[in-house]
Design a protein that fits this description.
The protein contains 3 helices and 38 strands. It is mostly beta strands and 565 residues long. The chain has a 10-stranded antiparallel sheet with strand order 6-5-8-2-12-18-14-15-26-27.
Length: 565
């Protein structure tokens, strides 16, 4: 079943309020207008070194750049900059700051140029930081610097330096620069093209530890979903915004990687925009996603392989509920496994145990609930002191009918968000909190977020299918696709010198990972590098009964049934 996202009556009222209060700001310009939609939301861009080292400088890596997307070579880049300060109070002005622009291939197309303090390209007041004058018919704005005659399409990027060299600051200066205002807009003819300015990581500062920000961002996921995030009066002070699929780490174990953590623990992956990303350059696709089958398909080195067949070209997160009592309810003895799925077959490793740590008996029939999460988005924010009002998150596109045109913002629907702050002494929510302004979802106060990475996640939709599997085909012989079908024989006998047993695997010579399991599925013997045809002692094989011998390496994946009399 697919989660229903459009709560029409509630969403219509809520999003009317959002539009009227500046939660969605589609101005002709891109920059301070979205970070500061209302005067009290004093949120500034930082370049240089602060919470994020080396952001938007001459030597920044690809994860820490300010990108400007160009779709046609006839388009132009319009630039405007306000005053630049060392400090957050606007008292220590930076004497000189240089900017340059590079083409997608890294060639410099605008050499190092001083950020203006008067005249063309200077934004004198925040009231004029709404976009270039004349673009899209705007009579209010600033007189821009215009970069034209662009040779190629793609993602250009803007860099800064206080010295016009690869060294960002002089020894006597402070390591950062804070823009009072900025605007970076793309235009085609006289028409502004919003949704072109983006970064993998935004490095920002609110003007004071108790200053609230209502900055708004649009996240574009790898599977082309767009969601809108409003910080909704968060008090983050100096902070960094990134978004990705897994959370605060790149671990493939989503149950761990989604946890908030102490210190900085994030990684940039998704593109983050200040407006809805340009629909032509960054389209969304609505596709039918389903898991076609789930079955127990033999062994891997650390357990069993649950084979999942998936039929979409999108990479998505799968969550498998192993419902051992088949009651349809997640309880203490059930297990939840998470794994990234790709088109075709994937092997999800399982250790053969239930949620209580007990080995699942061979021959058990149980249900697996396979859930696909599309638009999975994690937001690990580093060092956000307080969040007393909660986050606001909504779906932008694609809509449930497949449309990606948000002609009226009332069609946007709030999403449920989730969090797990257990690792840093906070609360958790795995059931979901509808992320509207009135709901106060994912709160922290008293500087709880200081020097922590506070992670929140959401997904756009879920698709669920239920399968029944039997945990006894582990007794059959399995070989992976393309692997040679090699025959082996297992022999076991008592050792006359003691009460142990010896065993021997006969077959083509080679080194394998060897495990022996008893009838309950418990591993009673393990040897990492077993030489086939060697005879070794197996002290755990003392009792009569059924044993399973598992062999695996890069060519072999077999299970042998063995009975000791």
């Amino acid at each position: 079943m697919e989660k229903k996202l459009q709560l029409r009556a509630i969403a219509t009222t809520a999003f009317l309020i959002m539009i009227l209060t500046g939660f969605f700001n589609f101005s002709s310009g891109e920059g301070s207008r979205q970070l500061q939609p209302v005067p009290e939301s004093k949120t500034k861009l930082i370049v240089g070194n602060d919470r994020v080292p080396n952001y938007a400088t001459y030597t920044s890596d690809s994860a820490n750049r300010l990108y400007i997307h160009i779709s046609k070579v006839t388009e132009k880049i319009y630039l405007g900059f306000g005053k630049v300060f060392y400090d957050n109070d606007g008292l220590l002005e930076v004497p000189d700051l240089y900017y340059r622009i590079k083409a997608p291939n890294g060639n410099i197309i605008v050499p190092g140029t001083k950020v203006p303090k008067t005249g063309k390209g200077f934004i004198a007041t925040s009231a004029t930081a709404v976009g270039p004058i004349g673009l899209s018919g705007s009579a209010v704005g600033y007189d821009p610097i215009v970069v034209e005659n662009l040779a190629v399409t793609g993602d250009y990027y803007l860099e800064f330096s206080k010295t016009n060299t690869d060294v960002f600051e002089t020894p006597s200066s402070l390591p950062r620069a804070i823009f009072e205002d900025f605007d970076i807009t793309v235009g085609d003819g006289t028409t502004a093209k919003p949704g072109r300015l983006w970064s993998y990581r935004w490095h920002l500062i609110a003007q004071g530890s108790e200053v609230e920000t209502q900055a708004s961002f649009f996240v574009y996921t790898k599977d082309s979903e767009v969601t809108n995030l409003n910080l909704n009066r968060m008090q983050p002070y100096s902070f960094a915004i990134v978004s990705n699929q897994m959370g605060s780490s790149t671990s493939k174990n989503f149950q761990e990687s989604r946890k908030s953590s102490n210190g900085r623990s994030d990684y940039p992956e998704y593109k983050i925009f200040l407006n809805d990303p340009d629909h032509n350059a960054f389209p969304s696709y609505k596709s039918s996603i389903a898991v076609s089958s789930v079955k127990n398909n033999g062994f891997v080195e650390k357990g069993y392989c649950l084979e999942v067949k998936y039929n979409s070209m999108k990479e998505v997160m799968a969550e498998l509920l192993l419902d051992f009592d088949s009651d349809g309810i997640r309880d203490i003895e059930d297990r939840v496994l998470t794994h990234l799925l790709y088109n075709g077959s994937s092997c999800i490793s399982w250790d053969g145990k239930n949620g209580a740590g007990t080995a699942v008996p061979l021959g058990l029939d149980f249900k697996i609930q396979a859930q696909i999460l599309t638009g999975l988005t994690n937001l690990p924010i580093f060092d956000p002191e307080n969040n007393a009002q909660g986050l606001v998150v909504s779906l932008v596109r694609p809509q449930e009918d497949g449309s990606q045109v948000l002609s009226d913002n009332l069609r946007a629907a709030p999403l449920e968000i989730f969090w797990d702050d257990s690792q840093v002494g906070g609360t958790s929510n795995f059931e979901g909190c509808l992320a509207m302004a009135a709901q106060s979802c994912h709160l922290w106060r008293n500087s709880f977020g200081n020097d922590k990475t506070m992670n929140t996640w959401w997904e756009v939709s879920t698709t669920t299918k239920i399968f029944t599997v039997r945990f006894d085909n582990a007794l059959s012989t399995n070989t992976p696709n393309g692997a040679p079908n090699i025959d082996f024989n297992a022999e076991i006998a008592p050792n006359p010198m003691n009460d142990q047993s010896t065993f021997k695997i006969s077959g083509d010579p080679g080194v394998v990972y060897l495990e022996i399991l008893n009838a309950n599925g418990n591993i009673v013997y393990r040897q990492k590098n077993y030489n086939i045809n060697d005879e070794v002692d197996a002290p755990a094989i003392r009792e009569s009964g059924v044993y399973i011998i598992r062999l695996s390496n890069d060519r072999i994946n077999k299970a042998l049934k063995l009975i000791k009399m």
